């Protein structure tokens, strides 16, 4: 009888195929299944040839090829395909078997699946996997969450295939119950949206306002990658700016400026809105992709709407230096907002997320990996219940010193008509957070005037609500539905 495999992987698209190769290279035996059988055959005849990988044409033979308790990892498109395959698996699984969803599933789906499989005596792990094709093959950042009793049975595999940070620690750790893993991955992707847009805005300022060419910008990003902004995204930006096609033209200049998105950024923003958490920078990064996709609208608007036509007359080197600091400031604010969302969700769902651990496993393998994350991990190690990342001494000191550069960059961009939605959002959040008094008192008065929604008073304890009969004919009836 053929030796049974230690883990099964269903789905041989880019991420699934490369994770399988990673597992096999680390000494694990893997059974694979794909809905299209030809994909299995091609894989075993190609990249999987001669490795400890067995291919299967039916779900039944795939499940039977696994050691008990069975460990089955799904690398499928999020949504109905995951539910459909789990349904196919059910007739073959035994109590205690483990189903692992390694795709980009929405965390609420993961919570539901965890509950449904638990009722059947099965164990479910919703696992965020970040790093793209390269990460899947050589070591991703892995964020598992779900049924805690299943973790010891998959931990040896996950920690073996995960990326290693600079201190050789595996970029994999248990996140928490039910949807914790996929929630953390969702927020990671939201932060990724913000990082990419901030880099794009910096590129736009250098290109549009300063008139720099790709070679000049490549040198700047390469230089930034040697200092505080050192990260995977800064590194690949420099690489992209230096890449030429056969005619010597920078490839980036030939790419249509219409950004795509798969929805994880939107999920992050919707979750923040539902929880009442300010996620303005990441929200603007999602909307920036939306407006970029409206290519025809923008082209028409360019013929109708007029902005300032002021040539930049300042010191270019000084602006580039200020831009470096502004980008760092905005990055701090983006992560502060992202971790605030993680903190609130951890309390709401009872996950007890370890924020130092999350920052640590993001240091390698994933798309947002950077030296910056070491400082975040240190901040939460020093104060696990830190209310806001901006309150940590390292970050408050950095942003207090560099905020002038952020103001300079946003101001110059506005004066010259260069759109910087995320840099602007970062500054607005910083100024809002540090404001002892905001105009919400007037807003509450307006709400009470037209809708009797009540308000709190500065001279009374929080939680006491009052209503004014502003017109003299409104009476004492108030609305209780919108008192918060």
From TrEMBL:
<dbReference type="GO" id="GO:0050661">
    <property type="term" value="F:NADP binding"/>
</dbReference>
<dbReference type="Pfam" id="PF03446">
    <property type="entry name" value="NAD_binding_2"/>
</dbReference>
<dbReference type="Pfam" id="PF00393">
    <property type="entry name" value="6PGD"/>
</dbReference>
<dbReference type="InterPro" id="IPR013328">
    <property type="entry name" value="6PGD_dom2"/>
</dbReference>
<feature type="binding site" description="in other chain">
    <location>
        <position position="289"/>
    </location>
    <ligand>
        <name>substrate</name>
    </ligand>
</feature>
<dbReference type="GO" id="GO:0004616">
    <property type="term" value="F:phosphogluconate dehydrogenase (decarboxylating) activity"/>
</dbReference>
<dbReference type="GO" id="GO:0006098">
    <property type="term" value="P:pentose-phosphate shunt"/>
</dbReference>
<feature type="binding site" description="in other chain">
    <location>
        <position position="193"/>
    </location>
    <ligand>
        <name>substrate</name>
    </ligand>
</feature>
<dbReference type="InterPro" id="IPR006115">
    <property type="entry name" value="6PGDH_NADP-bd"/>
</dbReference>
<comment type="subunit">
    <text>Homodimer.</text>
</comment>
<protein>
    <recommendedName>
        <fullName>6-phosphogluconate dehydrogenase, decarboxylating</fullName>
        <ecNumber>1.1.1.44</ecNumber>
    </recommendedName>
</protein>
<dbReference type="InterPro" id="IPR006114">
    <property type="entry name" value="6PGDH_C"/>
</dbReference>
<dbReference type="InterPro" id="IPR036291">
    <property type="entry name" value="NAD(P)-bd_dom_sf"/>
</dbReference>
<keyword id="KW-0560">Oxidoreductase</keyword>
<comment type="pathway">
    <text>Carbohydrate degradation; pentose phosphate pathway; D-ribulose 5-phosphate from D-glucose 6-phosphate (oxidative stage): step 3/3.</text>
</comment>
<feature type="binding site">
    <location>
        <position position="453"/>
    </location>
    <ligand>
        <name>substrate</name>
    </ligand>
</feature>
<feature type="binding site" description="in other chain">
    <location>
        <begin position="188"/>
        <end position="189"/>
    </location>
    <ligand>
        <name>substrate</name>
    </ligand>
</feature>
<dbReference type="InterPro" id="IPR008927">
    <property type="entry name" value="6-PGluconate_DH-like_C_sf"/>
</dbReference>
<feature type="binding site" description="in other chain">
    <location>
        <position position="262"/>
    </location>
    <ligand>
        <name>substrate</name>
    </ligand>
</feature>
<comment type="function">
    <text>Catalyzes the oxidative decarboxylation of 6-phosphogluconate to ribulose 5-phosphate and CO(2), with concomitant reduction of NADP to NADPH.</text>
</comment>
<feature type="active site" description="Proton acceptor">
    <location>
        <position position="185"/>
    </location>
</feature>
<feature type="domain" description="6-phosphogluconate dehydrogenase C-terminal">
    <location>
        <begin position="181"/>
        <end position="471"/>
    </location>
</feature>
<keyword id="KW-0311">Gluconate utilization</keyword>
<feature type="active site" description="Proton donor">
    <location>
        <position position="192"/>
    </location>
</feature>
<dbReference type="InterPro" id="IPR006113">
    <property type="entry name" value="6PGDH_Gnd/GntZ"/>
</dbReference>
<keyword id="KW-0570">Pentose shunt</keyword>
<feature type="binding site">
    <location>
        <position position="447"/>
    </location>
    <ligand>
        <name>substrate</name>
    </ligand>
</feature>
<dbReference type="InterPro" id="IPR006183">
    <property type="entry name" value="Pgluconate_DH"/>
</dbReference>
<comment type="similarity">
    <text>Belongs to the 6-phosphogluconate dehydrogenase family.</text>
</comment>
<feature type="binding site" description="in other chain">
    <location>
        <begin position="130"/>
        <end position="132"/>
    </location>
    <ligand>
        <name>substrate</name>
    </ligand>
</feature>
<dbReference type="GO" id="GO:0019521">
    <property type="term" value="P:D-gluconate metabolic process"/>
</dbReference>
<feature type="binding site" description="in other chain">
    <location>
        <position position="104"/>
    </location>
    <ligand>
        <name>substrate</name>
    </ligand>
</feature>
<dbReference type="InterPro" id="IPR006184">
    <property type="entry name" value="6PGdom_BS"/>
</dbReference>
<keyword id="KW-0521">NADP</keyword>
């Amino acid at each position: 009888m053929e030796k049974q495999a230690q883990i099964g992987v269903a789905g041989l698209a880019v991420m699934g195929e490369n994770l399988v190769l990673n597992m096999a290279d680390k000494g694990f035996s893997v059974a694979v299944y794909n809905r299209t059988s030809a994909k299995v055959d091609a894989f075993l005849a190609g990249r999987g040839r001669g490795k400890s990988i067995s291919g299967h044409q039916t779900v039944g033979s795939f499940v039977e090829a696994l050691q008990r308790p069975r460990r089955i990892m799904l690398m499928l498109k999020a949504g109905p395909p995951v539910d459909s395959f789990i349904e196919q698996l059910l007739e073959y699984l035994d109590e205690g078997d483990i189903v692992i969803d390694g795709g980009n599933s929405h965390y609420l789906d993961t919570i539901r699946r965890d509950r449904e499989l638990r009722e059947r005596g099965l164990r479910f792990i919703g696992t965020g996997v970040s790093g793209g094709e390269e990460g899947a093959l050589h070591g991703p950042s892995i964020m598992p969450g779900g049924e805690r009793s299943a973790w010891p049975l998959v931990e040896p595999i996950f920690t073996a295939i995960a990326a290693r940070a600079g201190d050789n620690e595996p970029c994999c750790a248990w996140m928490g119950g039910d949807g914790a893993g996929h929630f953390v991955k969702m927020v990671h992707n939201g932060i990724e949206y913000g990082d990419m847009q901030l880099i794009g805005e910096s590129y736009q300022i250098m290109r549009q306002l300063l008139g720099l060419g790709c070679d000049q910008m490549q040198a700047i990003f390469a230089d930034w990658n040697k200092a505080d902004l050192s990260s995977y995204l800064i590194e690949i930006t420099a690489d992209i700016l230096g890449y030429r096609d056969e005619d010597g033209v920078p490839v980036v200049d030939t790419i249509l400026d219409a950004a795509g998105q798969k929805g994880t950024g939107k999920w992050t923003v919707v979750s923040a809105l539902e929880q009442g958490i300010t996620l303005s920078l990441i929200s603007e990064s999602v909307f920036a992709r939306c407006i970029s996709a409206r290519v025809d609208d923008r082209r028409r608007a360019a013929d109708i709407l007029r902005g300032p036509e002021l040539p930049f007359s300042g010191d270019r080197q000084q602006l580039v230096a200020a831009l470096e600091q502004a980008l760092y400031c905005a990055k701090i604010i983006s992560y502060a907002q992202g971790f605030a969302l993680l903190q609130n969700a951890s309390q709401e769902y009872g996950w007890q997320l370890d924020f130092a651990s999350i920052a640590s496993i993001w240091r390698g393998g994933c798309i947002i990996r950077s030296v910056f994350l070491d400082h975040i991990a240190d901040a939460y190690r020093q104060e696990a219940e830190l209310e806001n990342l901006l309150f940590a001494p390292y970050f408050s000191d950095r942003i207090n010193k560099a905020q002038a550069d952020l103001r300079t960059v946003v101001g110059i961009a506005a004066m010259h008509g260069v759109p910087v939605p995320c840099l602007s959002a970062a500054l607005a959040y910083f100024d809002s957070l540090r404001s002892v008094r905001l105009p919400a008192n007037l807003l509450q008065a307006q709400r009470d005037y037209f809708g009797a929604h009540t308000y709190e008073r500065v001279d009374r304890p929080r939680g006491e609500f009052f209503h004014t009969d502003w017109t003299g004919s409104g009476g004492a009836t108030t609305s209780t539905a919108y008192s918060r």
